[in-house]
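User: Hi! Is it possible to get a structure for several chains at once, not just one? Here's what I have:
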Amino acid sequence: MKFFLIKLLALMLFSFSALHASAPATTEALSAHQEETYKTKPFSEMVGGFLKSTGINALMNPDPNEKNSFGEDMSDFHKSWGRVLMILLTFFLFWLAIRKGFEPLLLLPIAFGGLLANIPVAGIAGEHGFLGVIYGMGLSNEMFPIIIFMGVGAMTDFGPLLSNPKTALLGGAAQFGIFGTLVGAVALSQLGFVDFTLQQASAISIIGGADGPTSIFIATKLAPELLGAIAVASYSYMAMVPIIQPPIMKALTTDAERRIKMTTLRHVSRLEKLVFPVMVLTLAILVLPESTPLIGAFMFGNFLKESGVVERLNDTLQNSLINTVTIFLGLGVGSKLAADQFLVPDTMFIMALGIIAFSVGTAAGVLMAKLMNMFPGHKVNPLIGSAGVSAVPMAARVSNKVGMEYDSTNMLLMHAMGPNVAGVIGSAVAAGVLISLFQ
Amino acid sequence: METNLVLEGFKFMGLGMATVLLFLVVMILCMNIMSYIVHKFFPEPQPNLDPAVSTQKDNKKIIAAITAAISHHRQG
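Assistant: Yes, the chains can be modeled jointly so their relative placement is included. Here is the combined structure:
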């Protein structure tokens, strides 16, 4: 019965196509078009042609005419085994995100974008592929990081910073990671290991700010060709904050320092919280207009939140908008994980410099706290210094966790939020400085 | 030309760190001044009354929740 049905169906299809073929073409143009695009071929040739279009074939026998998303030639390695390697790497990133819980919100979209970008033939990350379109829509013009900043602003509470303003210095000190690495990167170029320009070195060093959107913002402005590696380094190190930071924090502090209890935070009035964003933005306007795209967006989100009268907008910024943009941002960054752009020696150096930047930033924050304790006034627990790198709120949580290891009654979380949000401002200012230097 | 690059890096570092720290120091000063002004001229209306009412309410809520939990436990 089943066979009969199939036969019938095949017969119908065949007769239909035969009819169609024998029917005289309505217009000459159409028939010419058909002749151009379709010629009857024996079945074996069809199968052969199909096999040539498979992914396996594309990976085994790279197409010599294939171009990358910049329209440049690619090496055979990047068309074949490089892609396989990158696809395996994205599987590893899936594992990190799902099993280890490393920033899954961003790592998963990035990794999947990377998987899609490495598919041969389909050209998803190319100019007309959907990843390419997403990239052009919001990454190459720095739109997505800015929107993310608005959402982060709406999620940020400046209360802890306002009640203990001097902790902002810790957020400033941690930016030393950025500039220290900048020197490191140019020194590497000097020694001839790599060939980083000052722009590229600056874009790499901003990883030390531990701020994903800022890194992407700077990378697209100063060194778009390094975006994939920088974004991946930045987000993966942010995700590894709980692993990277504690050893550095412990190495630089004494047992007594880690047990320092900080005075309770005072109450911050609503008006203070409302004035603060406008005040910081005014300062940024006066001192460093180059940093205002980032700080302006950040403070816009925060102002909406603290105004208390636009709950709907605030809710959209904090949830639906930032989530939507995170998906696009992740996929867009993932598109830069194409083998020809990621599997280059530079990437290795970027990853290495990134972790140095991050560690130096952490150390500088802790040391700054120790320095502040030399002056009279309320003592600062140096463990909150590490939160000066801006990875909000992960770095603050790490400070809290390490503090609790030594004294389970010592709650440092809110104290660490102060330097943490100051770190966001600090890295935005640092970004503004770098941009202004290349104007 | 070659030696310039590292020197440039140090220049960037000096300028960058100075700007960041200066910005934050000015920000801290402004924050202190702003807090002073706000507390002096625009104090929050009756800060003592509100928490007392809310804690009373909270206490009642907590008592209600505990009572409910106990009765649920006894029933179950």
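Chain B has two domains: 1-43, 47-76. Chain B has a mean pLDDT of 82.

User: Great, thank you!
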